[in-house]
Structures are given as structure tokens and as C-alpha cells.
């Protein structure tokens, strides 16, 4: 009995330290290797060089990533919010509710590249948009929609039922109950889910690979143009065998920093709500 | 006035819900539709079990056999899940026993950082740091299925940890008072009472994580070697998702190659969906 607990205890501590170590290592090592690379020029210049990215900077890729993920968010947010409202507050038929919930749940498991395939056939070719931010944005939107909807729905479900019942009994309709009671309570949680889904879209490469991401483009000014994206730029640098490996670390470090800053932000928002309730 | 607004609000949300729902169902149907033409050229059985993949005719005819890709996908995701299982259970035990609620609340966002790291970054770091290690042990070019599986296992760990910890904490709250009152050591009680009780839940979350691992594209593609051979642990292999990502750019639209890639996507999607649907049924019955 003593030995078993000791072994398990040791095993548990080791795996925890290992996991934390991996996380810290990935972040610190990437940042460490990119010291001296990330400067004003790197962030705000266009990529140049024999293998693109060996010289110059990554500005179009940063802006491109923001365009991709914002497009996806704009396309996915309103439907996700409305679906969550409808499913939680309006839909009474349990069968239909279970069906819709099941569809969302299962679609969330579909690999992201499938959405890329879909958008490639429908938006790039059938509707004739070509490879552009919009086509890629649709693929990303389909990918983040279930994620966002689940999170928003979950925050609605956590609202105290008695508040809702009291409000309904006072003769206040669902719309005003939602705006006056539910929305203020869930607002921070929704913002946090929005940030997390933005990050999710920003890190995805597979869906934009053949729908709108390209090796080189200038800073985009229209939804109907292709654009660069940070992870895609990193991938192409490696795939083409860039010799300046530190610059690749620089690209990776920038994406990790964006991730870290926005995750912290999302955490602050959701943390405060958690404390209040 | 308020009644009209309420009605508009209701029908607006309803309309958007159904639009979103039909869009998602449309995606599934559309992939099926784009995949079907290839089955006029090859039979389903040949497509899934065939070993040769020759999408472009160089004078020897074309062959569309997915077997090695399917095996590669299964092999890499299974190894990843097995590796991740050990780490995840260890971490979950730690979080359930050592950490209190407050610590858990602060640790989870840190672990979730792992699921936010772009997969290309994982692939890049693995290529840079782990691949040379494998190379020095005699693996050609250093890229192999095991390396891809190690990378994948880190990527899926957050998902397993969050659901397993949840189960552990619930069971712990339920049983720990009795365990302590009986004078049983906390860790011993955890392993002999709570761990066996949560096996079902753990298996469920492992299978779900396996689904995620199967669909992962970029990291796997960068470190798995991408050779169409029978995948072995220390040899090269290629997953279905990598196949699509690598060849879609060169496939001529509405050629058999193009349809075959959609069919590959269909195989991947169908596998994941079937596993998920079965699991959801199963998990509902068990609770």
C-alpha cells in the first residue's frame, strides 16, 4: 500500500512537472532563439529574400492573420450568439433541441481541413470568389462556429434559473430578460470566448492552405484578395528550406506572443466572472 | 410594440439557428457529393483497401488505394493517445489531489495554452529539436511516425486532462471523506478506488482525443515523412489529412484526382463522425 501510493505520487508529480516544463520550454526557447531577430523592421516590413522571409519582416502576415480571423469571427459570431439564445431560451421541443445540439457537438469534431475542402469547392470555384480572405474566412468561420456556440451556450446555462423565472413572472418578455439580465451577467464570458475563438482561427493553417492563404501578398485591402498568414508563412519558410532558421523562430515567437497576450486577456475576463458568481 | 420586438427577436434568432444548422449539414452533404464521382472509377473496397496511390497517369494508369494513409492515420493517432494517456492521468491526479480549486482554476488556462499553439509551431519545434535526436538514433532524415505521435500527444493532452480532471474531482468530492475516515492514504485511495471508477470516462475522453489527433494536419505533415509506404513506428508514413493538404493544390479541378481527395476527406470525416455519434449515445446511456 505504501509503495503503490509512493509510485503513483511520484508518477503524478513527474508528469505534472513534465507538462509544465514542456509548456514553459516551448515559449521560452522560441523567444530565446528569436532574440535579436524581433525588432521594429521585423514587425513592420514586408518579407524579402531568395527564400521569402529570409530578409525583411512579417508585417503582411500579421495583418493577414488578423483579417482572416476577424472575417471568420464576424461570420460566426452573430449566428453563434443567436443559436445559443434560441437553444437556451426559446426552443422548448426537447427532441429538436437534442438534435441541434448533437449536430453542433459532432461538427465540432470534424477536422479543420474538411472545412477547407468545402470552401475550396464552393467558394473558391462554384461561387467564383477565387482564393481570397472571404473564402478562407468562411472555412474558419465554420470551424469556430461550434466552438463559439458551445461556449456562449454554456455561459447562458450558468445563469441562475431563479433570476429568469422571477423576470418572466413579472411579465417581462424573453428579449428584455436577455438584454437586461442575461447579457450583463454573461458579457465577460462572451468576450473571453470571442478572444479564444479568434486565437483558434489565427492558429489554424489547414483550412486556409488552399482557400486564401498565399506565400506572398501585400497588406490586404479587400476581402476578395488573398493574404499571408503567420503560421502559413512559417510553414512555407520551413518547407522551402530557409537557411535563416532564427528568422523562423522569430515568426514562431511572434505567434506565441500573440497567443500568450490574448489568452491572458481572455483569462482575465472569464476569471472575474467566475469570482463574482 | 414590445410584443412585436419580442417576436422579431425570436424569429431572428430562430432563423439564424436554422441557417447555421443547415450550413453545417450542407458541408457534410457537399463533401459526400464531391466524393461520389470517384467511386465510378474504383470500388469502395478497392479505394479503402488498395495499397497503391497513383493519382496522375504517367502511362501506367491511375490507382486510388487509401490503405497506407488510413493505417498511417490510425497508427499515429493511437500512439499519440497512448503517450498522452500516461501524462494526462498523471497530471489529472496531481490536479485532483495536490491542487485545490483555486490552483486548478489558475493551472487550467496555462495547460490550455498548449491547445492554442498553432500546429505549425509544434511541427517546426519538433523538426528543429526532436528530429535530429531521432536522426542520431538511425532514423533516416529523423522524421518518423513516432515523432509525429509525440508531437500529437502534447497537442491533445489539454483535452484529455480537462475532462479526466473533472471526473477525478467529482469522484474525489464524493468519496474522499469516507476514504480518509477509513484511514486509507489519499494516493492509495485515488488509485484503487477512484481511478477504477473513472475508467469508462477516461476511455471516452481518450477516444474523443483520438478523433482530434486523426484530423490534425500541419504538425503531422511536417514531421511524419510523407512517404506512401506501410507505416511503421520508426518509419515514414502519411496521414489522410496530410495527403489532402499536400495534393489538393496540384489536383486539377473535377479530375479523378480531385474527387479522390474529397473521398479521402470523406473517409476521414465519416470515421470521426461515426465514432463521435456512437460515443455520444454511449456516454448518455452510461450517465
Describe what you observe in this structure.
Chain A has 277 residues and is an all-alpha fold. Chain A has a single domain, classed as MetI-like (MetI-like fold). Chain A has helices at 2-33, 40-44, 59-90, 94-107, 112-126, 133-157, 161-169, 174-203, 230-239, 245-276, and strands spanning 47-48, 55-56. Chain A has a two-stranded antiparallel ribbon with strand order 1-2. In chain A, helix 7 packs antiparallel against helix 8 (174-203). The mean pLDDT of chain B is 91. Chain B has twelve helices and two strands; from the N terminus they run H-H-H-E-E-H-H-H-H-H-H-H-H-H. In chain B, helix 6 (119-136) crosses helix 7 (145-181) and helix 7 (145-181) runs antiparallel to helix 9 (199-215). Classes of the chains: A mainly alpha (277), B mainly alpha (287). At the A-B interface, helix 1, helix 3, helix 4, helix 5 and helix 6 of A face helix 1, helix 4, helix 5, helix 6 and helix 7 of B.
Topology:
The complex is a heterodimer of chains A (277) and B (287).
Chain A: H1 2-33, H2 40-44, E1 47-48, E2 55-56, H3 59-90, H4 94-107, H5 112-126, H6 133-157, H7 161-169, H8 174-203, H9 230-239, H10 245-276
Antiparallel strand pairs in A: 1-2
Chain B: H1 2-35, H2 38-41, H3 44-49, E1 53-54, E2 63-64, H4 67-97, H5 101-116, H6 119-136, H7 145-181, H8 186-197, H9 199-215, H10 218-223, H11 240-247, H12 256-286
Antiparallel strand pairs in B: 1-2
Helix pairs in contact in B: 1-12, 4-7, 4-9, 5-7, 6-7, 7-8, 7-9, 9-12, 11-12
Task: Sum up the structure in keywords.
heterodimer, A: 277 residues, mainly alpha, MetI-like fold, two-stranded antiparallel ribbon, 10 helices, B: 287 residues, 77% helix, 1% strand, globular
Amino acid at each position: 500500500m505504501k509503495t503503490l501510493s509512493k509510485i503513483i505520487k511520484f508518477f503524478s508529480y513527474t508528469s505534472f512537472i513534465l507538462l509544465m516544463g514542456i509548456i514553459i520550454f516551448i515559449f521560452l526557447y522560441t523567444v530565446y532563439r528569436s532574440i535579436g531577430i524581433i525588432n521594429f523592421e521585423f514587425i513592420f516590413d514586408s518579407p524579402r529574400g531568395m527564400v521569402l522571409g529570409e530578409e525583411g519582416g512579417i508585417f503582411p502576415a500579421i495583418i493577414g492573420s488578423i483579417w482572416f480571423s476577424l472575417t471568420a469571427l464576424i461570420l460566426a459570431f452573430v449566428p453563434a450568439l443567436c443559436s445559443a439564445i434560441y437553444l437556451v431560451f426559446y426552443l422548448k421541443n426537447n427532441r429538436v433541441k437534442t438534435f441541434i445540439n448533437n449536430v453542433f457537438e459532432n461538427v465540432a469534431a470534424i477536422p479543420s481541413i474538411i472545412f477547407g475542402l468545402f470552401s475550396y469547392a464552393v467558394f473558391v470555384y462554384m461561387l467564383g470568389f477565387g482564393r481570397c480572405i472571404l473564402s478562407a474566412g468562411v472555412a474558419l468561420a465554420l470551424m469556430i462556429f461550434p466552438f463559439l456556440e458551445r461556449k456562449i451556450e454554456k455561459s447562458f446555462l450558468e445563469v441562475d434559473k431563479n433570476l429568469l423565472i422571477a423576470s418572466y413572472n413579472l411579465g417581462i418578455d424573453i428579449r428584455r430578460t436577455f438584454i437586461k439580465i442575461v447579457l450583463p451577467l454573461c458579457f465577460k464570458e462572451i468576450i473571453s470566448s470571442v478572444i479564444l475563438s479568434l486565437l483558434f482561427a489565427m492558429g489554424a493553417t489547414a483550412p486556409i492552405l488552399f482557400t486564401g492563404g498565399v506565400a506572398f501578398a501585400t497588406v490586404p485591402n479587400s476581402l476578395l484578395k488573398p493574404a499571408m498568414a503567420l503560421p502559413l508563412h512559417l510553414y512555407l519558410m520551413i518547407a522551402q528550406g530557409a537557411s535563416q532558421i532564427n528568422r523562423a523562430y522569430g515568426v514562431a515567437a511572434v505567434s506565441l506572443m500573440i497567443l500568450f497576450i490574448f489568452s491572458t486577456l481572455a483569462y482575465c475576463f472569464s476569471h472575474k466572472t467566475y469570482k463574482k458568481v | 410594440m414590445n410584443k412585436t420586438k419580442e417576436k422579431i427577436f425570436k424569429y431572428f434568432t430562430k432563423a439564424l439557428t436554422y441557417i447555421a444548422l443547415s450550413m453545417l449539414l450542407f458541408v457534410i452533404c457537399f463533401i459526400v457529393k464531391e466524393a461520389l464521382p470517384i467511386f465510378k472509377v474504383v470500388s469502395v473496397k478497392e479505394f479503402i483497401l488498395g495499397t497503391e496511390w497513383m493519382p496522375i497517369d504517367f502511362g501506367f494508369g491511375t490507382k486510388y488505394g487509401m490503405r497506407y494513409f488510413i493505417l498511417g492515420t490510425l497508427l499515429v493517432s493511437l500512439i499519440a493517445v497512448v503517450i498522452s494517456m500516461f501524462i494526462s492521468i498523471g497530471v489529472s491526479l496531481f490536479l485532483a489531489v495536490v491542487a485545490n480549486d483555486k490552483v486548478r482554476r489558475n493551472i487550467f488556462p496555462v495547460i490550455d495554452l498548449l491547445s492554442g499553439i498553432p500546429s505549425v509551431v509544434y511541427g517546426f519545434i519538433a523538426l528543429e529539436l526532436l528530429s535530429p535526436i531521432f536522426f542520431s538514433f538511425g532514423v533516416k532524415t529523423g522524421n518518423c511516425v513516432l515523432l509525429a505521435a509525440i508531437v500529437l500527444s502534447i497537442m491533445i493532452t489539454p483535452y484529455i486532462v480537462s475532462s479526466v480532471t473533472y471526473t477525478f474531482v467529482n469522484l474525489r468530492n464524493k468519496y474522499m471523506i469516507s476514504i480518509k475516515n477509513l484511514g486509507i492514504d489519499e494516493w492509495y485511495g485515488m488509485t484503487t478506488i477512484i481511478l477504477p471508477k473513472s475508467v469508462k470516462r477516461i476511455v471516452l475522453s481518450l477516444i474523443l482525443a483520438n478523433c482530434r489527433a486523426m484530423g490534425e494536419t500541419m504538425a503531422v505533415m511536417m514531421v511524419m515523412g510523407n512517404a506512401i509506404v506501410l507505416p511503421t513506428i520508426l518509419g515514414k508514413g502519411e496521414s489522410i489529412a496530410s495527403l489532402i493538404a499536400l495534393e489538393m493544390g496540384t489536383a486539377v479541378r473535377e479530375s479523378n484526382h480531385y474527387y479522390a481527395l474529397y473521398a479521402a476527406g470523406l473517409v476521414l470525416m465519416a470515421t470521426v463522425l461515426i465514432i463521435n455519434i456512437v460515443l455520444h449515445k454511449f456516454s448518455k446511456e452510461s450517465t
